[in-house]
Amino acid sequence: MSRAIRRVVSYYARPKSFATGGVNASSQEWMRAFAQQGIEVKIVYAQGGYDQRLVSDSNLRYAGLRHFGKSRMTMIPMGLGEQIDRADLVYLHEGWTPSNAIAAAICRLKSVPYVVMPHGVYDRRIAKRQALYGLRRRVEGAVLRGALAVHLFFDSERTDVLAINSRARTFTAMTGMDLPDSRWKPRPGRGYIAWLARFDIQHKGIDLLLHAMARIPAGARPMLRMCGPDHRGDKVRVEAMVAEKGLSGSVSVEGELRGNDVQKFLLASDAFIHTPRWESFGQAVAEAAALGVPMVLSESANITSRLSAAQAAVAVKPDCSDLDEALSYLFLHASSMSAAALKWSQDNLDWSNAAQRALVGLGAARDS
Fold first, then answer.
1. Distances, alpha carbon 286 to alpha carbons 17, 28, 266, 309, in Å
2. Residue-wise DSSP of 11-62
3. pTM of the model
4. CA 102 to CA 98: how far, in whole Å?
């Protein structure tokens, strides 16, 4: 790297309804990983919006910033320029928002390089569903054109980025995690499959999963426990769907789990399942893999190809039509899949390795 990165500012403006979302947590975890590499880090957040510090680390500094507007498409940062004055690099998270476009313009005005970490929002299955896509694509293309680089989690995301700006520079460094000491062990009589996410029917493919569950004969149907926070009233809708499909005896809709309760829930399960319509990473997937929990994952999640290639997960079609067969395979091979998940996690999820891969990618972008 031609010049060391000493100071990084992370900026992410999200409304309060997304305060505990995966992107908020991931963006802060990445900054903690950089701080552990000796980099001075400041996290700039929307004061009064998602005023949530999800990562506890004495090396992280937080700065609340006043914003006009309260929704994702109206939040405008005030005074961001002062926050990035001494930065060597600014990280912008997600995309398609006025706040990011304005932040990128401020960075260019102050000659501070910035990196975009999209967290999967450039996925064509998301992008083309947006209103005014043509106009927003031009704006986002300008953001990418001015970026030092786009930090991706998977190589498979690159095609979607280039569809927005063909000259965008990218590098890949997958999100890490603190690997736990606990290990999943096969034991008879657990009696449930774990589902862990926010209750977002469209994004998380909950309707697809419940439809697939309903197709399994009642006598052969496993118990599914679904835990997570509500998202815009979808939790009540999921409860109604469970009742309508006659799944009340097989599916339980439960509250959000935090801290050690997440690990206990996963360790006590027979398996973990995640069937989103799209997913950049999937923090719960990584947590399950790191514990060695055997998994059923939708092909539509970017991480699935990596885990299935390592024989650490069973992939199902995006519509979950082969769920019955996938579960049968998983229960036959749970022990070997668990061992494969642990090895994959040790090789890929350690935060120190993730941060080093990112710094190598950043150095190559700066030197190009």
1. 23, 16, 12, 15
2. EE---GGGTTSHHHHHHHHHHHHHHTTT-EEEEEEETTSS-------TTEEE
3. 0.87
4. 6
Residues forming beta bridges with residue 36, ordered by sequence position: none
Strands 60-65 and 40-46: parallel
CB-based contacts of 89: which residues, under 8 Å, 6+ apart? 5, 7, 8, 9, 112, 113, 114, 115, 148, 362
Q: What angle do CA 149, 150, 153 make, to 5 degrees?
A: 135
Dihedral sign, Cα of residue 208, residue 211, residue 216, residue 221: positive
Q: Which residue has the tokens 């390592």?
A: 310
Q: What angle do CA 106, 19, 287 make, to 5 degrees?
A: 110
How far from each other are the two terminal CA atoms of the chain, in whole angstroms? 10
Q: What is the pLDDT of residue 101?
A: 97
CB 15, CB 50: distance < 8 Å: yes
Q: Which residues contact 40 (CB under 8 A, 6 or more apart)?
A: 6, 7, 8
- Confidence (pLDDT) at 1: 39
Q: Alpha-carbon Rg of the chain, whole angstroms? A: 21
With a cut of 70, list the residues of the chain below it in pLDDT. Answer: 1-3, 15-21, 48-54, 188-190
